[in-house]
Amino acid sequence: MHVETFSTAVAFLEAAQSALEANDLVNSLPLGIALRLKSGSLIPTQAPFLGIVRADDGAVLAAGLMTPPYNLLIAEIGAESDAAALALLGQALREGGWPVPGVNGPRPRADRFAAQWTADTGQPHQVVTNLRLYRLTAVRAFGEAGGRLRPATEADIPLLAVWSEAFHLEATPHSPSPDAVEATRQRVAAGELYIWEDGGRAVSCAASSRPTRSAITVSLVYTPPAQRRRGYATSCVAALSQRLLDQGYPCCVLFTNLANPTSNHIYQEIGYEPICDFVGYKFETGA
Questions:
Q1: CA Rg, the chain, in Å?
Q2: 272 forms bridges with which residues in the sheet?
Q3: N or C: lower Cβ tally within 10 Å for the chain?
């Protein structure tokens, strides 16, 4: 068993893509980010960590991807019980001098990595997010909110940048926030951001992101507090999901926060079905 690290996403995907795609929906986050790095649509501010662990026979046993300053992402690859592969991946990060603020991934794999990291470094780990991954292959309900879905335009960038920052503060307060204006500008230019408009006013938004061979992610679902409880997010997500299916994607996936029972309920009404749970850990660095 040994670790291989890569300086480019092209090389990483040559080594790991087939293993990632063996469980492609669960791996939609690291796979989607790696594909964006490969295409140049994601330009990280620092060099990413891209690593795999191989068995002696060449099989990929584990894979990790990190775009600092964000958490390490652990993929769902290999046997769940292969704690030795995860330990070896952690060793490679430490020996390479990589600062690891935390880890995100499917349970129980991320649990196991976090426990091993604490055992090896003495850094305590703390849960900061509990998420559930859902998939949708057919929209069952579109909601009853008035209005319509439309692509965001350049004129929407100032408002959507504010909404994007508010979304990150609500959904991922323990994670560094990207430059909201620049990230919004890039999403609008790529045709990924959509607005639910009612009476000529933008009242909710959602985005598509990280397309892979078998799925595309719905993300950045946000409704400002004054417009909530009117069904806008339900209709926005349902309409966007249908649009993406109509474009030929086999299914849509999205993450929800398990601390928000409302969103978990409405997405299931739309037709999203749970796949698995994810957990995010923060590693305490001390004073």
A1: 19
A2: none
A3: C
Q: Residues with Cβ < 8 Å from 260, sequence gap 6 or more?
A: none
Q: In this structure, is residue 130 part of a structural domain?
A: no
| Average pLDDT per consecutive 10 residues, the chain (287 residues; last block may be shorter) | 96 97 95 95 91 93 95 87 87 96 95 96 95 97 92 97 93 81 94 96 97 95 94 96 97 94 90 96 81
Residue recorded with tokens 């790529």:
190
Q: Is residue 39 in some structural domain?
A: yes
Give the integer Cα–Cα distance in Å for 37 and 241: 24
Count how many residues are written for the chain.
287
Tell me the whole-structure pTM to 2 decimals.
0.92
Burial of 224 (0-12, 13-18, 19+ CB in 10 A): middle
At 276, is the secondary structure helix, strand, or coil?
A: strand
CATH number of the domain encompassing residue 71: 3.40.630
The CA-based angle 161-259-149, given to 5 degrees, is 40
CA distance 123 to 104: 16
Strands, E, within 168-272: which ranges? Answer: 193-198, 201-209, 216-222, 252-257
Q: Parallel, antiparallel, or unpaired for β 201-209 and 125-136? A: unpaired
d(CA 110, CA 77): 12
Contacts of 113 (CB under 8 A, 6+ apart): 72, 74, 86, 89, 90, 103, 105
- Does residue 116 sit in the same domain as residue 158? no
What is the signed CA dihedral for 86, 88, 90, 95, rounded to 10 degrees? -170
Helix, coil or strand: residue 66: strand
